[in-house]
Design goal:
Length: 120
């Protein structure tokens, strides 16, 4: 990728990081509906639902930071496994990709829980 494209992508990643942080702050707050037993049950249910969302947001944040570091180190777009270039079309769709398609599919074959359910 050209330097201008990388700079633009880095800005987009920083913006996504900020959005993720804002969402995390909203999701981390414990809901407060009232003091009745029904209200407490609703609060606990909503909080439990938000835990999965928090986990997904934290994982996405981690991937974004990793991509940003790769850009700064001039390693963005290089497969971490085989050191070949990752297809630019793949990076457009999935900017935080760290593996080329070949290495990712090899990894998914070794780790069946990474496969998509419709491919089984």
């Amino acid at each position: 990728m050209e330097q201008k494209e990388l700079e633009k992508l880095a800005k987009e990643i920083v913006k996504k990081l900020e959005q993720t942080d804002q969402l995390l702050q909203k999701v981390k707050k414990f809901p407060d509906y009232g003091i009745s037993e029904d209200d407490n049950i609703l609060e606990i249910e909503e909080y439990n639902e938000s835990l999965g969302l928090q986990e997904n947001l934290l994982q996405g944040r981690k991937e974004l930071k990793r991509a940003l570091k790769a850009i700064k180190r001039n390693r963005y777009g290089t497969c971490e496994s085989c050191e070949t270039s990752i297809n630019p079309e793949r990076l457009k769709i999935y900017p935080t990709a760290t593996l080329c398609v070949k290495c990712k599919s090899t990894q998914a074959k070794r780790k069946p829980w990474l496969q998509m359910p419709w491919r089984r």
